[in-house]
Amino acid sequence: MEVVQILQGIISLILILGLSPLFVGLVNKQKAIYTGRAGASILQPYYELKKLMKKETINANSSSFISTIAPLINLIAVAAAAAMLPISFARPLISFEGDIILFAYMLGLARFFQVLAAMDIGSSFEGMGAAREATFAVFAEPIFFFTIGSIAFISGFTSIYDIYHSIRLDNISFVVFIIVCSISVFILAVTECSRMPVDDPNTHLELTMIHEVMILDNSGIDLFLYQYSSYIKLFIYVILEASFFYPFAVQSYTLGIIIFVVVIIILSAALAAVETVTSRFKMKNIPHYLLFATAIGILNLLIYTFTK
Amino acid sequence: MQNVLSILFCLSLFYLAVTPRVKAYVAVLRFQGILLTILLMLPFIEQFSIFAVILPATLFIIKVIVIPRYINKIILELDIKRTIEPTIQQFNFLLLVIFSFIIIFLAASILSQSTEIEIIPFASGFAAVAVGIFIIIFRKKLIIHVAGFLVLENGIFLFGTAVASELPIMIEIGVLLDVFVVVFLMGIALNRISSTFEGFDVTILRRLKD
Amino acid sequence: MDLLFYSLLLQLSSIAAIAFFTENKKASAAAHLLLAAGLITGFITTLTAVLTSNFILKDMNVFGISTSLFRFDALGLYFLCIIQLVAIPTTIYSYSYLKHYIEKGKSVKSNLVFYAVLLTSTQMVVVSNHAILFLICWEVMSTSAYLGMIFEKEKKDVQTGAFYYLVMSHAVVFLLYVFFFFLHNQTNSWLFSNFHLSPDAGKLFIILYALGLIAFGMKAGFMPFHFWLPRAHPIAPTVFSAFLSGIIIKMGIYGILRTFQFLNPTPEWLGWLVLSVSMISAIYGVWYALAQHDIKRLLAYHSVENIGIIGIGIGVGFIGSAYHSVPIQVLGFGGALLHTLNHAVFKSLLFVGSGVIYQNLGTRNIELMGGLVHYGKYFVVLFLIGSIAISGIPPFNGFISEFIIYNSFFTTAKELKNYYPLLMLISAVGLAFVGGLAVACFTKINSIMFLGKERKEVKHFNISFYEYLSLGIFALLCVAIGFYPQPFIVIVNKVLTEGFIPAASSFSLLNINWYLLSIIFISASVGIILIFLWKRSIQKKYGRRISSAWGCGYEGLNPRMQYTASSYADELNEISKTALVYHKKVDKQKEIFPLKGKFESHSEDLADNKILLPAFRNFSSFVSRIRFLSYTDIRYYIAFILIIITIYSLIAFLWK
Questions:
Q1: Of the residues B88, C27, C268, C607, which has the maximum number of CB atoms within 10 A of its CB?
Q2: Do C288 and C426 belong together in one domain?
Q3: What ipTM does this complex have?
Q4: CB atoms C567 and A131 under 8 Å
Q5: How many domains does chain C have?
Q6: Nearest to C162 by CA among C134, C142, C176
Q7: CB contact under 8 A, C394 and A105
Q8: Cβ pair B119:A292 closer than 8 A
Q9: More confident residue, C464 or B115
């Protein structure tokens, strides 16, 4: 039994690590279709990663050992966070009481080193991106706790696997609660992964970017590691979102997998649609946006607590 | 259903707290008017009575049609700027609103132990009153003050539905008329002030002191 | 336990050594050697006592004489352990620190004497069982710290900063006298082991708690009383500021925990009070830290933050005590105790690091630093370990204690149901928010001080062996507690279950699977190394070269164009500027070819500048200023109406 569980955990980790570029490809393809272009193949992110791997690495002359180790730590921290996520019914590789905290802080570790690596270049472009990343992260963290954390506090479970499995849809107010939670998680995903209303992944104007400008001076294998971990990060949040739909698949394992895949495809469509129709916010307004998401979470929680 | 409407009402309050545009205020007022009308119409699903139609109908006419149009007209006529000129940062304002929400919900739940009230409409109404007052305190423009009064009044209305047994409908109609008159008076006053003073800052009204 | 007193004597004998050697250099070497030897023997004795004893010794045999002046109970020994553990590397650093002054020809003897007295008296504080002895040791500790602080007494800011500390110490001692006299009246004993009062004592119980919490909280630096920290820390010699931040403020925590031992079970509202005050301390502390440019001042504000985190654990423990719930108490107090150790370690590391930087560059302003990583790579690694630990990020020790505190929130929510999930969730969000701000702050100082290019020419950046040794010990502790928390948790658990919390054996901190955490961290590290090797081979295959940074085609990049500390923190400060009093002055030239522009920013401490100081200064003129209510703006009147309504309804609510 133990061995089977560990195997399942390893398989789901490999799935997350393997399929994350595919999801990005899916989003980009749909975005292209919505805007009336043919778009690149959905396997394009894989090709790009392969291309990056074969490029020469260039480091800025003022960079130090931080630039060398940061991409590695970034990738490993994100992968460790990915190892805590359940895919369908498989118990994740790392699952213990309180792993939700470790999950949040592992992403914090990744961010810490990404910011340091950006500042390591000593250029003000990277500085700008790093400052923004640090600022918005401060306001994004509470959203995580007000959504997934609130389910943890309500259900009394502290492991991500158990938290999602405690979701039951037999209580109408809880259903409303879960729906609003999933909205907040979507906003969180958009912020943390530097997607559209917060950051534009396609722009190449340094002054307006967050994530892209932080890795501006990286190339070759370093850029490969950064890109890959950002793909994984996006996929992590997508799985967080998709996992809200567990209760519909209580019956069987295969049904769970099918629902999971369907939900992920729907989410990619939603992400692409949002990116097509919205424009990027003013940097100044992003904290308001995040606080607004937090406010929704709080209201949601208040209402849930007092209607039981 | 009542709860869902109240939640939407709360969301509109949050939106008020972040938006910097005057137009959005008018839109939110209209939205809240629709919400309140639906809320008052709810009992019709069970029983129909001509007398009970009067209140939702007047509400709809006044809150959704007349007042927003009137405010829009004033904005157009007086050429008021489109931003709201807050006196504190939007971010802190939103924080303030969030904290008052938490306190109000806690208070409502404590109250509900001793009296018969429905927590969510009660707390949302209460919160709307608070937000209305905050808007008046922390915004400079007179037209926004009017909006603040209206939000406050909407709150009282929601409040009324939560404690329906204790607040007769006639009083609600009275309040409605009251506010209606206030809005018109404000509008006329605005017109007068604009011809006497430059701009619509309350701060300028200091010159009126005796 | 005689050995412990011999070790104290050994430490005190360093004073004799100072008197014996006339030459500064020899005196310093001998004194430090004696101090270190005494501390190491003391530490080993304490550690064995913590690990082996069952903590029920009441009357002690000291040198063959039976006495109740001293007591070695769980809590005292734990704090003794922390003191000695932190004092060893600090002493090692002190040797190297004073050497700089000796080379300049300054006499360091007085400073050394005060340091030795401070060390021994602090150790005496935690083992004394008699209230009067406690007060004497406490006073000696405070005074010697003050005397050590004014090492560079010719400087004006040293005098004022140290004076704040002195005033604070006196206020604390005054309150403590009242506190202990009350306790003595109630229990007819001067002994800590006999002090015990239950809530049946009525009003007196509350008064005693208020006295104890205010006095010890002032020493610890909780929010409204933190005013002395950012003033005293920057001006003290690094050794003293490290010891002050690592140990002396922890004596406040020790006092609060003792107060809890005397007076329990606590009423629930007190738990909430402590929790909210701590939360405010944590958030304000870290947010003020973000606006600082002086590295030591910044670290002082981080002490406020971390004391807040410790206080959060204590607050949760108080709530648990009100409900007689063992798991909540164990997790709450456990988190607080472990964080006390952790903070002592990483804060001392950071302070020693800041001292090293100050010695080399001659400035504490981080805006003038930069690029130090090219001069002292290993130093940066050590400092970085401390920074990651203090931000509460895995895999280092700060994470472990925050993890316990988070768990205490979860357990409280689970045990007490009702509204507790909501309230605990808000606390958890607060802690997460503090964590996020700490990350922002420590990425700021690390990147501005160490990374990029030099903003000011670095003439020399030498780090002596002793400095490396001292920093290395601290960093090793950070790593050890993070990667292998089991033994440290065992100790904390032992302290809690044996004597501190009544009947606590039913729940233990070891219920959390600490080995799993170790495995995760170690395998992640192995993963990093493997990927590093893979990356190396790839780079060998496809090449790697160094080039200049991307500058949008502009070639004349210079170090002054780098992002500065104030611009890094600007967005966060901008948000908090009304709440935290942050001023910015931009002087832009409007010509087509502007020649000169000016920018300045500084932050004031709200509680300090706006509440405490004016409160004292303006008290006499208060009555004449009551007319401030007569504004002429309608908005103020409406605000007043709102305030009055709130007050009335609050009274109506609370009045039964």
A1: C27
A2: yes
A3: 0.93
A4: yes
A5: 2
A6: C142
A7: yes
A8: no
A9: C464
